[in-house]
Amino acid sequence: MNTNTELQLAWQFIENTGTHLFLTGRAGTGKTTFLKELKAKSHKRMVVVAPTGIAAINAGGVTIHSFFQLSFAPYIPDTTFASAQASYKMGKEKVNIIRSLDLLVIDEISMVRADLLDAVDAVLRQYRDRYKPFGGVQLLMIGDLQQLAPVIKEDDWQLLRPFYDTAFFFGSRALRQTEYVTIELKQVYRQSDAFFLDLLNKIRENSADDTVLAELNKRYLPGFKPDKEEGYIRLTTHNYQAQRYNDNQLAALPGDAFSFKAKIDGTFPESAYPADEVLTVKKGAQIMFIKNDTSGEHRFYNGKIGIVLDTGKDGIIVRGNGDDESFLLETEEWTNSKYILNPVSKEITEEVEGTFRQYPIRLAWAITIHKSQGLTFERAIIDANLSFAHGQVYVALSRCKSLEGMVLSSPLRLESIITDHTIDDFNREMEMMSPDRVKLNLLQRQYFYELLCEQFDFHSLERDFGHVLRILDEHLYRLYPKLLGQYKEAFEHYKTEVTKVGDTFQSQYTELVNATDDYAHDEKLQKRLISGANYFKTKLEELLSPLLAMTKVQTDNKDIKRRMTDAISTLQTALHVKIGTLSFTGEEGFSVSSYLKHKALLTLAANDHNSAGEHKSRSASSSAKSDKTNKIEVPSDILHPELYKQLIAWRNSEASGAGLPVYTIIQQKAILGIVNLLPVDIESLIRIPYFGKKGAEKYGDVLLDMVNRYVEDKHIQRPEISAFTNKNAGKEMKPEDVKDSKSDVIKKPRPDTKEVSYNLFCQGMKLEDIAKARELVTGTIATHLEYYVRQGRIKIDQLVSQDKIEKVKHHLQQHPDMRGLTQIKVAMGDEVSYADIKLVLASI
């Protein structure tokens, strides 16, 4: 790499900028070697992915789908299905990797579809910065567009066409939002024969003529039969050609052959079979695994070569090449699915039409050109005369190290060389994106400045702070007025003493960065950054650290509790990372490598701490069910902590004995009212918000006994309870009677929407009339009334005509396995509506 100008430039772009890079070049120009060196020497935290199993193994990475846990459905932007894919919950380890990632390497990018790249963007935004393409991760895309193109079925393309101009990766909507550069490697390492290189270039650039074909066809050797020791491998364009060759090799082996027939259920087109319908193997057969090991033991992966050690009617014993242990292979299952896009709801649904079960192997004396991408052979027999896709001929020929090591099993024809004109258009644009040293220097400065701004940006932390404050202010203000006041005060100080000062500080360091060429080592700049880092670190520790330490809130509302826990966790993580990086900058000054390193380590440490906290919380919760003396955390707004602990312990004991949730005994809000207001008798106890007569009748005596004993023991003066309860003494105070402290409007509970529809139906209105009156669609009203059909409060013939009921039931009897609403509707056509089907299903 030291003598290769393009490789040196590529290294500088990856190491010293945050700019996305498309690294391309013809076969054998050192792309794979560059990746291996990058993995070994780069200071950036990276993950390597590829579109196929073989490509991933060759790159030393994993497949895109497995790493990002993506389905194989097309990713349709701006649909709920896309959102569901992007919000898929990952394990802690995977999330930590993503959040601490600096660089994502995608090898064999030519085979990556535009929608797949957008799906990656969605996942990265989910777990990182949702405001930046790819979550702010730098991309290194490696590949040659003159090689194999992405595979896309016509049905999938019909779904994607409205959103994409091309299926190639550069059609990605997320990528088009970014600035990325292209570096093309020119020096070829795989082939040293200049004459052979020139022939390959002509094929690659779609400029091959009769002269080029004549030279290549000199390697057509009719009847060529190599010795086994020479190590020739056969490359074919179609699977059936490889299969035929493998069958011949199998027949030449001694011993008995055993066949295993696939089990196929439902609809599974023969053209889509993922393995042989009838797999025939012998002892000594060379095989390739065609699926990843689903047992979790990682014994094999898609593309791994192995050998059959023994076989019989009871199964197949195999061993992977290079492995010491053999194992009994088990069958695997594939599914055939169909994807439907609803033009109204924009939802895409997956319907499994059939399954295919077979041993996940195939014979492997020959492989297809598609599976050979990224490999290099000393000797190969190429049969590319029946090529059918862009780049196939070029990929096949360029797998060979020399012209002498290549043999053509049939002459090449000009029409076999297929290219996509979309690539030609992109190549012209690509030339404009090729950077030079001037561009590199500009982007290096920009990267330094962007990370510097990230270090001293306090707006995102303010958003996290504000989120916690909003939850307190909107949902917990009655329970924790004191804590809310502290948050509001600290938030105002944060905006003036941190965010506003940070904005002013940005203009100062911006001027210093622009004033010097040696911005990374400028003494005046570093001195100012050290001073600023120490100021902001101190302010954050003063304003936020004590506040978070005292924030212990309890609520019976599970949704609010979850939201508050998540918001606090996010704020704690962001604060931990920010204070930590500021601390290192305050001691050492600012540098790109140091900032990236410490930010990643601090992020991982914060996530581990939060996970440990969640585990501790879960353990404490579990322990509380069996250990009544378990430590009880007291919220900061409690006036009488000891009494609070007594009441909580009593409530937990009652709930455990009755086998009920704790809030059914007494709500958290009522406990806070009792603890802070100290009721003296049944009348004042009834007036506690969220308690009432029923609670007083059942638990009044025991609660008053605890309160009165506490007051006597502590010699406490009781507060005036009327200030906190309904002004009408003796009247039970209900939640709906409580006024919002922010307004004089009395809040009333929202009516149950399905009950409203039910009441209108009982008044004699039809579905269509109810929908019109409520300004909803008929399907929504059907969903409301479906609830009452299931309960038996509405008879099905009151909603659906008898002939439609019979049609639907008859169809279900004829097709007992068909329960999907969409499947039934498609099968029955316009005879019945979705609402009719939904209601009949409810009645059954």
From TrEMBL:
Pfam families: HRDC (PF00570), HTH_40 (PF14493), PIF1 (PF05970)
Family matches, as Gene3D superfamilies: ATP-dependent DNA helicase RecQ, HRDC domain, P-loop containing nucleotide triphosphate hydrolases
InterPro entries reported for this sequence: AAA+_ATPase, DNA_helicase_pif1-like_DEAD, Helicase_HTH, HRDC-like_sf, HRDC_dom, HRDC_dom_sf, P-loop_NTPase, PIF1_helicase
GO biological-process terms attached to the record: DNA repair; telomere maintenance
Residue numbers spanned by region Disordered: 611-630, 729-749
Ranges of residues in domain HRDC: 637-717
SMART domains hit by this protein: AAA (SM00382), HRDC (SM00341)
GO molecular function: DNA helicase activity; nucleic acid binding; nucleotide binding
Transmembrane regions listed in the UniProt entry: none
Protein name: Helix-turn-helix domain-containing protein
